[in-house]
Automatic annotation (TrEMBL):
Pfam families: Peptidase_C48. Residues 1-162 form the Ubiquitin-like protease family profile domain. InterPro entries: Papain-like_cys_pep_sf (IPR038765), Peptidase_C48_C (IPR003653). This is Ulp1 protease family. The keyword Hydrolase applies. GO terms for molecular function: peptidase activity. GO terms for biological process: proteolysis. Keywords: Hydrolase, Protease. Belongs to the peptidase C48 family. The keyword Transit peptide does not apply. It comes from Abeliophyllum distichum.
Length: 203
């Protein structure tokens, strides 16, 4: 929410939901055999336009797209950052010792191919999208979790510090419980500060 409404250091960013990666993984094999498996009518094609989610921005107007990726076989969350200014995929893993690089690369491989296809379909960029896949960079010098259940909060903190251009200043150790509490407070604060914000109805 904060990423859409404010721009510290002139950084513009947006994010996807967790279903984005799930949808991509479910159709990846079909896509590699036939790119028409994902056409303009597919729900994935809406993400770059900013019209799929109430909190999302048009990808053609941002510098970063933060994508939460769930490694279901490992029950582990990682963060993929589509860096449009440098045109590659930065990947943050909070558990190098437990989750090997080869597994992380396999988890984000579908993104490297399908993201570019979605950009071509949506035509949100002012320049021609390259035909090759995105380069993937594993970000190594980042804080690591010590508790097996903290990967989710690390994904959010990676995105937050990257957004503020302070990823190298992220504390190597921090109170994850306090971070979760602060996040709830921040979400409430930003919702209050946006009088014209209409949240989606749930039933």
């Amino acid at each position: 929410m904060r990423m859409k409404f404010s721009s510290p250091n002139n950084v513009r960013a947006t994010s996807t939901d967790c279903l984005f990666d799930s949808k991509i993984r479910s159709i990846f094999d079909k896509f590699m055999k036939d790119v028409h498996a994902i056409d303009k009518q597919h729900s994935l094609a809406l993400y770059p336009t900013g019209k799929m989610l109430w909190f999302e921005s048009n990808w053609g107007e941002v510098d970063h797209v933060f994508i939460p990726v769930f490694m279901d076989k490992r029950a582990h969350w990682i963060l993929a950052n589509f860096n449009l200014s440098k045109w590659h995929l930065d990947v943050y893993n909070s558990s190098f010792k437990m989750i090997r690089d080869v597994a992380v690369l396999a988890a984000v491989e579908p993104l490297c191919y399908i993201i570019l296809h979605l950009l071509r379909l949506s035509k949100v960029l002012k320049f021609t999208t390259p035909d090759s896949s995105l380069t993937c960079i594993l970000c190594k010098d980042v804080p690591q979790q010590t508790n097996g259940g903290d990967c989710g909060i690390f994904v959010i903190k990676y995105a937050e510090y990257t957004y503020h251009m302070k990823i190298m200043d992220m504390p190597k150790k921090f109170d994850t419980h306090m971070a979760q509490y602060n996040m709830v407070v921040q979400l409430y604060k930003y919702a209050i500060e946006q009088p014209d914000l209409t949240l989606p109805r749930t039933s």
